[in-house]
Design brief:
- The chain folds into 2 domains: about 150 residues, Orthogonal Bundle (DNAb Helicase, Chain A); about 260 residues, 3-Layer(aba) Sandwich (Rossmann fold).
- The chain contains 18 helices and 9 strands.
- α1 packs parallel to α2 and α10 crosses α11.
- A 9-stranded mixed β-sheet has the order 3-2-4-5-1-6-7-8-9, with helices on both faces.
- The longest helix has 28 residues.
- With about 475 residues, the protein is α/β, with parallel strands linked by helices.
Length: about 475
């Protein structure tokens, strides 16, 4: 399905031609195209002649390292210059000179005129998209879900353009960057424990990583049965208990099931061991149920919000995060940490249809971009392929991500989870002695979870032993528990 094209009527869309002329004039008179490089695109100009002039300014700057009006005029082929002159009813060179001569604010005003230009482009683009949707919706055979999906993608492209135009400072001196770094160090000193980011809720992991950092993405990978949802939810609970606002997006499990896991996790700290499966079936004593109700009261105060929906795209995720942020704002909080369970269930765009490697790369890049745009920490859970099962040593390693697009490259930290007990429970000794050894080993490592830091941009790689009670969805520091 394709939404029909719409011709923009410049007279009826509130188009202000002077906004485009001011930006072009400032670039032509100053020759400083670098002032808008990476921010302004040719398609930000609604008027066709202005779009073409900006494209030529870019070409001229690349060739001559300047965008002066005389150089730009020479870059137009003679036949094209004549065609534009006929349309303008005046020589193209005169129009270019007029743009340069009539600029009001010059290059110094670009800090205001560029955002105004992009705001106008966004406003008119949204109106054009709305009109396209209106025309498509007239067709009785249109699929509304597909219409919404296409419209959402187009609107998200506009939103991405606005985010780029409204971004804050991106260039820093080394001294300025050091000031920010020292502020992080000061925070770590004041809080203790060496944490410069959001807590994992796990002491040894905090020491090894400094916490989960804003604008960075952690990929938490594991095979089914290793406890990745339990770990992800546990991280969210502990972060929320520390005061961080947490968004948990579940593409697989319903919010009520996640809530049950959260309740058994919190109750576990009170030495109340209720199996998650028993809570589902109602096989709980009155005393334990009272503790679960008390855990519910504990949950009430946490700044943690769950979104359960399958088939979300990256565009959909952005919308969900914005809505979560609105709710957090009303609660006097903000989304500091986003947990996505799990990455491979995110719907890819049609751009790379059929090429799963490229689809996962697109999803991975999208999640990282959300973290940077929204200034939040991202934990993306990832299910590893069956290739792990074919090895004798089934501990995951970075090579297991290499068929998953650019996950390893995009992630700032890659963590794998491994429970030897999971495989021992499924195994059987080939003789009586081997079976006895298997049972002894299973008893020894039944509650052991290996937290394998396989990549860390700003720290060492290492394996940290944790305590896990899978039945209660509880993950704790190994130093406080026995395996």
């Amino acid at each position: 399905m394709k939404i029909p094209p719409v011709t923009i009527n410049l007279e009826n869309c509130g188009f202000v031609v002077e906004l485009e002329q001011e930006v072009l004039g400032a670039l032509l008179v100053s020759g400083q195209h670098a002032a808008v490089r990476g921010v302004v695109r040719a398609d930000h100009f609604i008027e066709p002649i202005h779009r073409r002039i900006f494209e030529t300014i870019e070409l001229t700057a690349d060739r001559y390292n300047s965008s002066r009006v005389d150089l730009v005029a020479k870059m137009f082929p003679s036949d094209e210059a004549k065609a534009w002159s006929d349309q303008l009813k005046a020589p193209l060179t005169s129009y270019l000179a007029g743009l340069a001569a009539n600029t009001v604010y010059g290059v110094g005003g670009l800090k205001n005129s560029v955002p105004n230009l992009i705001q106008q482009w966004a406003r008119i683009s949204v109106g054009a998209e709305a009109e396209r949707v209106r025309l498509a919706s007239i067709d009785p055979g249109v699929d509304p879900a597909e219409l919404i999906r296409l419209a959402t993608r187009s609107l998200d492209d506009v939103a991405a353009g606005l985010r780029g135009a409204g971004r804050g400072k991106t260039r820093f001196s080394l001294s300025e960057a050091a000031d920010v770094a020292l502020e992080e160090v000061q925070t770590a000193i004041e809080h203790g424990g060496g944490i410069t980011g959001i807590t994992w809720g796990l002491t040894d992991v905090n020491k090894a990583t400094g916490g989960i950092h804003r604008r960075e993405m952690v990929v938490l990978g594991a095979r089914p049965g290793m406890g990745k949802t339990a770990v992800g939810l546990g991280i969210g609970i502990k972060a929320a208990q520390s005061g961080a606002g947490v968004g948990f997006i579940s593409l697989e499990m319903g919010s009520n099931r996640l809530a049950m896991r959260a309740l058994t996790d919190i109750a576990y700290d009170w030495n109340v061991r209720v199996a998650y499966s028993d809570l589902i079936t109602g096989n709980v004593s009155d005393k334990d149920f009272e503790s679960i109700c008390a855990a519910k009261q504990n949950l009430n105060s946490l700044p943690l919000w769950i979104e359960e929906q399958s088939g979300l795209s990256i565009s959909d995720l952005r919308v969900k995060v914005d809505r979560m942020q609105d709710i957090a704002d009303r609660a006097g909080s903000k989304i500091d940490l986003l947990i996505v369970d799990y990455l491979q269930l995110i719907a890819a765009s049609s751009r790379y249809s059929g090429n799963r490697n490229n689809e996962v790369s697109e999803i991975s890049a999208g999640l990282r971009q959300i973290a940077r745009e929204r200034d939040l920490a991202m934990v993306a859970l990832s299910q590893l392929s069956r290739g792990v099962e074919s090895r004798e040593d089934k501990r995951p390693m970075l090579a297991d991500l290499r068929d998953s697009g650019s996950l390893e490259q995009d992630a700032d930290t890659v963590v794998f989870l491994f429970r030897e007990a999971y495989y021992l429970e499924k195994a059987k000794g080939k003789d009586a002695d081997a079976e006895a050894d298997r049972v002894d080993r299973l008893i020894e490592c039944e509650n052991k979870l290996e937290f394998i830091i396989a990549k860390q941009r700003n720290g060492a790689v290492k394996t940290i032993d944790l305590f896990v009670d899978i039945a209660s969805s509880a993950v704790r520091n190994a130093t406080t528990r026995e395996f």
